[in-house]
Each structure stands twice: as structure tokens, then as C-alpha cells.
Amino acid sequence: MSVRLYVGNLSFDATADDLREIFGQIGQVEDALIVTRPGGGRPRGFAFVTLAEESAGDEAIRQLDGQKVAGRQLVVNVAKERQDD
Questions:
Q1: Contact 11, 19 (CB under 8 A)
Q2: Strand 75-78's sheet: what is its strand order?
Q3: Which CATH homologous superfamily contains domain 3-78?
Q4: Residue 84 has pLDDT above 80, yes or no
Q5: Cβ neighbours of residue 25 under 8 Å, at least 6 residues apart?
Q6: Residues 12-48 pLDDT 10s
Q7: C-alpha to C-alpha distance for 81 and 66, rounded to whole angstroms
Q8: What pLDDT score was predicted for residue 8?
Q9: Residues with Cβ < 8 Å from 40, sequence gap 6 or more?
Q10: Burial label, 22 (beta-carbon count in 10 A; 0-12, 13-18, 19+)
Q11: How confident is the model at residue 65 (pLDDT cuts 50, 70, 90)?
Q12: What average pLDDT does range 1-19 have in this prediction?
């Protein structure tokens, strides 16, 4: 079963390919999405990465949460489901 991870404190220069490379060393990346400001503007400094296996998600959190990437200390955890009000 796949798992969606939140990746925070991301460099504004990071790309989806960068995330695929970083997380791909741990498990199979199904999707990598960098969140941008409305209208396709500047990145907001966080992203979502979907890994094919839940165990790979656990390992990604263990290895990458708190690690410095491009001078920024990443925050990596399981993404919360969005609440629509």
C-alpha cells in the first residue's frame, strides 16, 4: 500500500526531479509534487511525495526527517488528509 509524505522546509530551488532522486534511493516514488503559490508562481517551500510501499515511507521519515538538503533541514512525516469544510 502506498504512503503519501509531507516534505517541509524545502529549498525554493528544489524540483520534483530532486525529490524523486532523494526519495528514490529509499523506495519507489509514485509521485512528487512541489506546492506553488496560486497561478503557478513561486514554490511555497513544501511538497508531497508518494512512495509505493508504506515501509519505504517509514524508512524515508527515519532517514530524511531533520537532514540538511540544500542548506535546509527537512521535515518529513506522513501527510494528513485534507479536511474540506
A1: no
A2: 29-36, 43-51, 3-8, 75-78
A3: RRM (RNA recognition motif) domain (3.30.70.330)
A4: no
A5: none
A6: 999 999 999 999 999 999 999 999 998 768 899 999 9
A7: 22
A8: 98
A9: none
A10: buried
A11: very high
A12: 96
**Do the Cβ atoms of 80 and 6 come closer than 8 Å?**
yes
- DSSP states along the chain: --EEEEEES--TT--HHHHHHHHHTTS-EEEEEEEE-TTT-SEEEEEEEEES-HHHHHHHHHHHTT-EETTEE-EEEEPPPP---
Grid coordinates in use for 17?
526531479
* Locus of grid cell 511538497: 47
